[in-house]
Amino acid sequence: MNEFLFMKILKMVMLLLKIASVSEVVDLYKLQGKINMIL
Q1: CB proximity list for 20: less than 8 A, separation 6 or greater
Q2: Is 1 helix (H, G, I), strand (E, B) or coil?
Q3: Span 16-35, mean pLDDT?
Q4: Which structural domain, as residue segments, surrounds residue 22?
Q5: How far is residue 32 from each of residues 17, 28, 35, measured CA to CA in Å?
Q6: Residues 27-34: what's their mean pLDDT?
Q7: What is the CA 21 to chain-centroid distance, rounded?
């Protein structure tokens, strides 16, 4: 049961990493904009 759950979580994490790597650049630009507004 634990191994199955671990594999399920691992697959979800890998999927999130794929999505994150695609939108990472966009998020970095947004983050820079927010930091510039605060400073």
Answers
A1: 27
A2: coil
A3: 80
A4: 1-39
A5: 21, 6, 5
A6: 82
A7: 7
Tokens 């794929």 correspond to what residue?
18
- pLDDT tops 70 at residue 38: yes
Residue type at 34 in one-letter notation: K
In one-letter notation, the amino acid at residue 24 is E
Q: What are phi and psi of 5, to 5 degrees?
A: -65, -40
- The Cα–Cα gap between 37 and 24 comes to 20
- Residue in the structure block whose two tokens are 């199955």: 4
pLDDT band at 1 (very low <50, low <70, confident <90, very high): low
**How many domains does the structure of the chain reveal?**
1
The three-state secondary structure class of 39 is coil
